[in-house]
Amino acid sequence: MDKYENFIANVLGQTKQGSLVWDVDSPGKYFEYIFNSQIAFRCFAGLYTLNKQKYLLLLVEKKAPNNNNDFDLILETHALELIVLLQGKIVFTITENHVSRDTLIDLVDAVEQVNESSKKLFDSFE
Questions:
Q1: Which residue in 91, 116, 70 sits closest to 3, CA to CA?
Q2: Do 33 and 26 meet the contact criterion of CB atoms below 8 Å apart?
Q3: Is residue 110 within a helix (H) or strand (E), and if so which, with residue range?
Q4: Per residue in 28-38, is it b (16+ CB within 10 Å) or e — as a string?
């Protein structure tokens, strides 16, 4: 595994254990960090602590144009990115260029299940 895959594996593990807490947030709140923020439709934010440093993680979902088809039609696809911030500055961004799409989807699935807003909603049905 490379450094990005190791990082995602650690974030995923902490998310599943509950030590990394996420919540739904507005993508517009982070427009200065999100490339093409106007196409972002969902954003999760979480605080990740490593070596006494607190990093803000933004897991962003976007509708992205996809014109890679036989008919040259522009269709929308689902794009994912994880933005890592330290003191308001981007440290790095992880996209499908760095890790597999399946890895990012696994992270989204985990975050959807444990974020504070969904926990409150699902707790109402127990």
A1: 91
A2: no
A3: helix 101-114
A4: eebeebbeebe
